[in-house]
Amino acid sequence: MTVAKARAGTASPAVSVVIPTYNSSWSIGRTLLSVMHQTLRDIEILVIDDGSTDALNDALRPFLARDARIRVIHQENRGLAGARNRGIDEARAPLVAPIDADDLWHPDFLAACANALAENPAAPFAFAYSFRMDEHDLLFPYIVPRVPPRHDFIGLLSLNSVGSGSAALFRKAAVLEAGAFDEGMGRVGLHGAEDWKLALRLAHRSDPVLVPRHLVGYRFLESSMSQKNPVRQLRAIHAVLDDIGAEFPEVPKRALRDGLTMMTAWLLPAFARNGQFADFFRFGFKAYAFNPFWFTNPLLRRAHGYRVQISIAALAKLLGLRHEKLPHLSEVEMEGGRPFAYLAETRDA
Description:
Layout: H1 3-6, E1 15-21, H2 28-36, E2 43-50, H3 56-66, E3 70-75, H4 79-90, E4 95-98, E5 104-105, H5 109-119, E6 125-133, H6 153-159, E7 168-171, H7 172-177, H8 183-187, H9 194-205, E8 209-219, H10 225-228, H11 230-247, H12 253-273, H13 277-289, H14 298-318
Parallel strand pairs: 1-2, 1-4, 2-3, 6-8
Antiparallel strand pairs: 4-7, 5-8, 6-7
């Protein structure tokens, strides 16, 4: 029995979708379309306006007229973690799914994750693979893992297997028990790793469940918080590792070092793009020299292998060795269909 059928006719929805937004009028329409196209229909959609100063209300107006499931909540700016927490507090469903206001979901995302949680009652959350796209919904190359990544506590610590703040469906009770998203990090300028910290706290209690399908579109922007200021992002990563090491002292130090190595590897291209070459070499040296046997961890070897494949494809395109254009998501076939065909209506917007 699917979750949607099991909850039919109940007063509260099966899932509360939480969309935190701050000055995202340019993208939130496409995010809302992806939520409205979910095959799991028994949902509420909470848009948390975190003090926006752009034309958000104008962007939302046509969607409010089309879908009564959408509710907009305005608040003074509390940051991304605070906006997510407000949505969780307002949620009426036992399952909550945050999605950033510029990301997208495959139509099967909520149904697949909800059914995975129904089949794994001890799991605090379920998540799916992510793929990357640009601001125009053009799809970057991605690799389908031959072996699913380890996704227990150690796997999430070493690899950040969830990888995106829009990739998971949580049990609301588990999130509240774990303290929700840490707003204190943002108050001291350490934005950008609160989702990883929450996933680790939850995974320490019980293993999450992986849906091994690419169902989450992560919008990769060079102007994003992590890519524009990788030094601050790396400080946030250090803070999470320090907090997790203190909260769970039994965690092997090797796992903490592996986590720093992998997360630094993720940020090194941002340092290079920004011309921060001194930081590139300084932080890269620390991450690998202080963890000289990282390559003995098969998880890290495999993850680095995937990253190298993706980087080679990107470099070949940059050098003009590959001339094919990036495909628009509305034209991309996945699993025998075109799940994002609806984006064609926004393509020239």
